[in-house]
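name: query_chain
kind: protein
chains: 1
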Amino acid sequence: VDEAAWEAVAALMTGLARSLGDTWAVAFDALLPALLARAGADMPHGEQATAIGVVAETLERLGERHAARHTQALLPVALRLAATPLKPRAPDDDDDDDDAAQVVQNAVYCAGVLAAPGGPAVLGAMQQLLSALRPLLERGRVADRLSDNALGAVARVLRGSAAHLPLGEIVPVMLAALPIREDYRENEVTLRTLMVLFSDAGTQQILGGHRPGFLQLLASVVVQHDAAVVERLATQGVSDDDEAEDQEEQDDHLTPTMRAELAAFLAASGVAI
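structure:
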């Protein structure tokens, strides 16, 4: 299969997961061996990236119940691909055409989706998982989109296993890597997970000292989002095209629902925006 055909098949599969939901799960299970073959160690980076990306996006759309069925088998695959060596990066590098970076980005996304349900398989791989994610949270060391995906992956890990993890060590590293800079779709899981943790009375002693900085971060994210929306509307107007609307959702810092949640959280915390 040539690259264009393979990418078309991949887009079709993720589209079917989006439209069919649970109905697509049986077909996905049947197609999974072929996807994993494309993610094999001897395959080109471009094919690995597409294959593991399809797995990640499909499982996220199918939901945590289906992701949990595959965690034990697929998490080692995602972690293997997340360890793909990256080329040394200069500060002004543009990594958009770096296939190895795309493999790592999609594999990190997949690892987070698989870890979100929690459970024994995730806890058993936790050291390897966090060791893979930690270097990617260092801004400037890797492309921003890799750090953004790592933030989303850590948030998904916390969503399923926070009670088993040293929040006092993990959350400050996340705050230092925020805000999301390129892949704004990761804002939702990252910020929502942190809001839950900062709202939990049981974590106040551990995280309370970081709350003022977190509130300042949220306020900044909302302000930047609002400014970006105003600029987009001024230059492009309102679109009634589905594809254009999908692109707008990707480009906007926050979805309308997420923007409202952040504003409510800030208001409840006494912060005006």
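note: The mean pLDDT is 91.
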